[in-house]
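Quick one, tokens below. Sequence please?
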């Protein structure tokens, strides 16, 4: 286990607590991401965010490397790079999408990855989830329908980009568990994926955006929060926590960001939803909870009857 977290992550429950904390941090991060769009472009925001995240955890990565019993292989770095591409794809789609959607919508639609994780597990690796996944997926789709205003054309382009972003979040969670954890170097994985995101974001920025220094300074508080707290700390907590739980379990804990995004959006930005929108959010969150909670309860009941 990584030295800085050796005493913290001793149990599965504590790992889930770290994942829940990451969700809370990301939920608040939606507010910072939305506010920053008034000053800088989405790709510039992604670039600065992840370069700051890399600087934040670099001392921990150096310490981890010194304590590691074996060196990383080329295959490890390829895996880290691939996970970084997935993270960048999700972050970029999310940031662009937030230009034309609300913090609350972005929070709940991003949370769809909790349903997508088991679906993609079947498609990619033929790992069949518990049967409750299928009705939960339909429930989540019904929630999106209500959240869009009760008609599909109510979904904005930004909402659709956020849904696409959720697919890449789901893939990132899956592949962290499948290829990222074999190395036993979660901090180095975080550092590499942050650097990949920063570099890809820089290429996209130079190709599509023009940002002045005063614009960056105007968004400095949001960029600092997203880089140091939301990315540097939040994503690292995710990677460390996933070493002690499964991908679907991690997804349900991380999905708490949707609740925190709605809460912080209401408190800090004054966003309000209609009763229909609230019902849609409730259906999506119910799907997130049920897809993990019901199988766990049935498993526990089966053990007691034996």
């Amino acid at each position: 286990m990584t030295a800085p977290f050796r005493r913290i992550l001793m149990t599965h429950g504590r790992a889930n607590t770290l994942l829940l904390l990451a969700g809370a941090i990301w939920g608040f991060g939606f507010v910072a991401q939305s506010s920053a769009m008034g000053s800088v472009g989405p790709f510039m925001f992604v670039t600065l965010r992840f370069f700051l995240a890399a600087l934040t955890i670099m001392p921990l990565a150096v310490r981890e490397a010194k304590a590691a019993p074996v060196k990383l292989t080329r295959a490890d770095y390829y895996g880290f790079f691939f996970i970084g591409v997935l993270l960048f794809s999700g972050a970029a789609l999310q940031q662009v999408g937030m230009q034309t959607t609300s913090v609350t919508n972005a929070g709940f639609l991003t949370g769809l990855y909790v349903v997508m994780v088991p679906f993609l597990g079947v498609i990619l690796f033929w790992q069949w989830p518990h049967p409750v996944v299928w009705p939960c997926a339909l429930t989540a789709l019904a929630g999106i329908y209500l959240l869009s205003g009760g008609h599909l054309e109510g979904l904005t382009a930004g909402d659709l980009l956020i849904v696409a972003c959720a697919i890449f979040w789901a893939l990132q969670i899956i592949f962290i568990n499948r290829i990222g954890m074999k190395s036993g170097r979660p901090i180095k994985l975080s550092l590499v994926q942050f650097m990949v995101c920063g570099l890809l974001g820089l290429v996209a920025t130079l190709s599509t955006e023009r940002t002045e220094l005063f614009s960056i300074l105007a968004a400095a508080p949001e960029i600092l929060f997203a880089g140091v707290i939301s990315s540097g700390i939040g994503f690292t907590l995710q990677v460390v926590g996933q070493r002690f739980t499964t991908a679907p379990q991690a997804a349900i804990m991380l999905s708490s960001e949707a609740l925190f995004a709605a809460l912080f959006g209401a408190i800090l930005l004054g966003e309000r939803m209609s009763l229909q929108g609230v019902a849609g959010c409730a259906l999506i969150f119910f799907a997130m909870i049920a897809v993990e909670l019901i199988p766990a309860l049935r498993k526990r009941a089966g053990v007691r009857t034996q």
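Confidence is low (pLDDT under 50) at residues 1-10. Residues 18-114+151-273 form one domain.
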